[in-house]
Amino acid sequence: MRRFALPTPTRRRLTAAALGVALIGGFSALSAPAATSHGYTDQPISRQKLCANKVVPDCGPIQWEPQSVEGPKGFPAAGPADGRICSANHAEFAQLDDPRGGNWPATQVFGGQAFNFRWQFTAPHATTDFKYYITRNGWDWSKPLTRAALDPQPFMTVSYNGTRPPYTVVHPGTMPSGKTGRHMILAVWTIHDTVNAFYSCSDVQF
Hints:
- By secondary structure, this protein is of the alpha+beta class.
- Helix content is 15%, strand content 29%.
- The strands form two sheets. Strands 2, 3, 5, 6, 8 and 9 form a six-stranded mixed sheet that branches. Strands 1-4-7 form a three-stranded antiparallel sheet, with no helix packed on it.
- The protein is globular and about 35 Å long.
């Protein structure tokens, strides 16, 4: 079978077209949107940050990515399942749900105390709000966190209306009154333009 060579101008046009497709594909890959929202609380210090600081052993992957506890938003009507709230349903972060016999280090606080609740972000994002929940008196700290263990309403809500917070944000507030003993504060950062939120559990001692 005879092979026919394409005329030189035709070969040049085909080569240029192929190169153009390759370049467009490369630029598309480079410009594809990436995840742009990650963060955690470090005041009161969260379980994921304790793991990242190597204060608590046997934490698994969360020790390398404390900012990644992201799950469905809409808490408490939606969001992570009961018993998996601190890990935001991530099986690889299940260590965050483990009560460890009450041996998670707890921040000492006082009822009615003025307190600066602080978040650290590796990538801030447009935000709906931040909400802070606390466990009921008499909750069972020996079991993973559930909705029934929390007071039904957040004790503090900070609205952002779609604006983007700085890389470190402080929310001046007050520790709830009437609490004694060991409790947990659940901080929920709701993202404005995705279907997700970030969850951060902090153990405190009144």
